[in-house]
Amino acid sequence: MADTVLDPSAWTCPAPLREQGVVVMGHGGGGALSAELMEHLFAPAYGNDVLADLADSAAVELGGTRLALSTDSYVVRPLFFPGGCIGDLAVNGTVNDLAMSGARAAFLSCAFILEEGTELEVVGRIAQAIGAAARAAGVTVVTGDTKVVDSGHGDGVYVTTSGIGLIPRGVDIRPQRAAPGDVVLVSGPVGMHGIAILSVRESLEFGADVTSDTAPLGGLVSSMLEVAGDLHALRDPTRGGLATTLNEIAAAAGCGIVIDEHRVPVPEPVANACGFLGLDPLYVANEGRLVACVPAADAEAVLAAMRAHPCGTAATAIGACVADHPGGVLARSRFGGTRVVDLPVGEQLPRIC
């Protein structure tokens, strides 16, 4: 038998190697590779103090008015899924990014990239969903664009939305403001969007239907602001799930975060699906949930306000910000053990938004 020459460069592994010279799917996953792409490629190229905050939306001042700006692209596959489609996902995603700075979205732009051969009926359904979602969120789509690419050079429909909203006076919400002693709240069950996408993409059944949690969160944030003396940090745990969001907050604030894993609300079908597939529900994407870091003195009032809103009926306190292990996240089990909850390197479920 002839000698075989092994070429390590041709080996593959579940998590892409960090020294990649090309774009890999993990760069779009919201985890460590996404962070490296921003830190080492985009941030140096753009270089400004506003971008350095790396928040869900940028807070800027124009003519004495504080504005929040956000933009996002949506490449979800499939285009339609239980609980929504790429259209309402695009609206809610941008509205929610603005809400995470305390802003109420006012106007959106919407751009379509269409693949040649896509049925106009499909495009029409998506456009109708965008209009309905915008009306439900109290926002107006005021401008847009459409481009068409050759057949085989797209995936049906991609959507990009950008939004602008007003930040109320006195509101200063950003991940850098999370502080030891803050209570960490989550607005509802996690993991539903990612599992809903996976169920239709792979034709899997998990004993019960799982629908996406996609929803606009502007009204929920307004309810929280009405009762809180100060909200320190808000983030929506989309790509990379709850675990990635907590790590981003801890890193930005320079504090540690400890959560009680048994307090994290994970629906039984999501838990079953994750157990079957070997996934960690803390890393599965959401599209209608938020994480809040709130001073302990305001936590009960904020939690009550969240539970009184339709988007926060199952809101739960899951942990706290601490002075120990700055920049790190730990999860405590029901039995007292702990584990490190780190940033994911690759991507558990690509193309979920």
TrEMBL record:
Source species, domain of life: Bacteria
GO annotation terms (biological process): protein maturation
Pfam families: AIRS, AIRS_C
Domain PurM-like C-terminal: 180-325
Domain PurM-like N-terminal stretches: 56-167
PANTHER family xrefs: CARBAMOYL DEHYDRATASE HYPE (PTHR30303:SF0), HYDROGENASE ISOENZYMES FORMATION PROTEIN HYPE (PTHR30303)
Family label: Belongs to the HypE family.
NCBIfam families xref list: hypE
Protein name: Hydrogenase expression/formation protein HypE
Organism: Streptomyces sulfonofaciens
